[in-house]
Amino acid sequence: MDDYTQQLTQEILEEFFAQTNQFPHAVIMNLSRKKVDANRSIEEATTNDKKAVASYKSFHDFIKESKNQIEKNFSKGLYIDIHGQSHSHQAIEFGYLLTNDILRLSDEEIERYENFSSIKVQQEFSPFSFSEQVRGNFSLGTLMMDRGFDSIPSSKIPFAPRDDEYFEGAYNTRTHGSLISGKVSGIQIEFPYNCRDSKESRVRTAKALVSSIIEYMLIHFGIDLKN
């Protein structure tokens, strides 16, 4: 677990309830990555240790169960994988399974990668193009920029200055987003240290993220989380 990422997640859950009067599904891995790295395939994550395998399967089964309930109750939804990073740009990174090289492309060229992203299913119901969903005025990155948080990708920072300082999403986002199947989009969010290093920064970040998610869901999913 990255430093203070679990505490930030708890703030996000509490803020979600404060703004919507309901809690989202939440699955938190409490074990160290040295024991189980749940963001990798089971072979890489556990080295076949029986206890590690059991924890790994339990973690991913809970996510699958949550997704099934969301699809049953709402027909579509959003999965968010929360992590922490310490890149020099100090911006929040939103990962859609698009490498930084892809983000450097023009909006027209990025459209070709829609079917290779973790939010692929949104083409079925979002009124906006794929490039707009990723870094347009109503992308999660730009919504967070509007609330005072530098974010990649966004309309103001469409790609990271260095390819080795951007995480595009990994196993969890590939597996639980809509790349392979299903009606649940997936976005990996990597928070810089200044978003999670103190109670004050975590509260501020949580308030901005939750209000951004509420707006994003209404715009792209047609789901009003406040009603």
Please give a structural write-up.
Helix content is 42%, strand content 11%. The longest helix has 25 residues, at 50-74. It has a single domain, classed as Aminopeptidase (3-Layer(aba) Sandwich). With 227 residues, the chain is of the alpha/beta class. It contains 9 helices and 4 strands, in the order αααββααααβαβα. The termini are far apart.
What's the short version?
The protein has 227 residues and is an alpha/beta fold.
Which keywords apply here?
alpha/beta; globular; 4-stranded mixed beta sheet; Aminopeptidase; single chain; 4 strands; 227 residues; 9 helices
Fraction of helical residues: 40-55%
Which oligomeric form is depicted? Answer: single chain
Let me know the average pLDDT.
96
The tally of beta strands, per DSSP, is 4
Q: Which series of helices and strands comes N to C?
A: HHHEEHHHHEHEH
